[in-house]
Amino acid sequence: MVDEPSVEDSISILRGIKDKYELHHGVRIKDDAVIAAVELSSRYISDRFLPDKAIDLMDEAASKLRLEMDSLP
Fold it and tell me: Structural domains in the chain?
Protein backbone atom coordinates (compact mmCIF):
# COMPACT_ATOMS: atom_id res chain seq x y z
CA MET A 1 0.00 0.00 0.00
CA VAL A 2 1.22 3.50 -0.82
CA ASP A 3 0.82 6.20 1.81
CA GLU A 4 -0.68 9.58 1.00
CA PRO A 5 2.04 12.16 0.28
CA SER A 6 2.57 14.89 2.87
CA VAL A 7 1.40 18.45 2.27
CA GLU A 8 4.99 19.45 1.48
CA ASP A 9 5.43 16.57 -0.99
CA SER A 10 2.08 17.37 -2.60
CA ILE A 11 3.13 21.00 -3.08
CA SER A 12 6.28 19.78 -4.84
CA ILE A 13 4.22 17.47 -7.05
CA LEU A 14 1.85 20.27 -8.06
CA ARG A 15 4.76 22.62 -8.75
CA GLY A 16 6.09 19.97 -11.12
CA ILE A 17 2.87 19.67 -13.13
CA LYS A 18 1.43 23.19 -13.00
CA ASP A 19 3.10 24.14 -16.30
CA LYS A 20 0.96 21.56 -18.09
CA TYR A 21 -2.22 23.04 -16.57
CA GLU A 22 -1.10 26.59 -17.40
CA LEU A 23 -0.57 25.57 -21.03
CA HIS A 24 -3.82 23.59 -21.21
CA HIS A 25 -5.99 26.37 -19.76
CA GLY A 26 -3.99 29.35 -21.06
CA VAL A 27 -3.63 30.91 -17.61
CA ARG A 28 -0.79 31.54 -15.17
CA ILE A 29 -0.94 29.69 -11.85
CA LYS A 30 0.96 31.47 -9.08
CA ASP A 31 2.90 29.53 -6.46
CA ASP A 32 0.56 30.88 -3.76
CA ALA A 33 -2.34 29.23 -5.61
CA VAL A 34 -0.50 25.89 -5.68
CA ILE A 35 0.14 26.08 -1.94
CA ALA A 36 -3.46 27.12 -1.24
CA ALA A 37 -4.84 24.27 -3.39
CA VAL A 38 -2.88 21.71 -1.38
CA GLU A 39 -3.53 23.22 2.05
CA LEU A 40 -7.24 23.89 1.50
CA SER A 41 -7.96 20.55 -0.16
CA SER A 42 -6.11 18.80 2.66
CA ARG A 43 -8.22 20.62 5.23
CA TYR A 44 -11.67 20.55 3.61
CA ILE A 45 -11.87 17.57 1.23
CA SER A 46 -11.93 14.48 3.41
CA ASP A 47 -13.16 11.82 0.99
CA ARG A 48 -10.13 11.91 -1.34
CA PHE A 49 -6.36 11.85 -1.06
CA LEU A 50 -3.46 14.16 -1.85
CA PRO A 51 -2.22 15.05 -4.39
CA ASP A 52 -5.28 14.03 -6.45
CA LYS A 53 -7.71 16.33 -4.66
CA ALA A 54 -5.33 19.29 -4.89
CA ILE A 55 -4.70 18.66 -8.59
CA ASP A 56 -8.45 18.61 -9.26
CA LEU A 57 -8.91 21.82 -7.27
CA MET A 58 -6.15 23.57 -9.23
CA ASP A 59 -7.57 22.25 -12.52
CA GLU A 60 -11.11 23.40 -11.73
CA ALA A 61 -9.93 26.85 -10.61
CA ALA A 62 -7.90 27.30 -13.80
CA SER A 63 -10.86 26.15 -15.88
CA LYS A 64 -13.22 28.58 -14.15
CA LEU A 65 -10.77 31.45 -14.68
CA ARG A 66 -10.45 30.58 -18.38
CA LEU A 67 -14.23 30.51 -18.78
CA GLU A 68 -14.51 33.91 -17.10
CA MET A 69 -11.78 35.31 -19.35
CA ASP A 70 -13.52 33.97 -22.46
CA SER A 71 -16.83 35.49 -21.32
CA LEU A 72 -15.46 39.04 -21.18
CA PRO A 73 -16.69 41.32 -23.98
Answer: 7-71 (1.10.8.60)
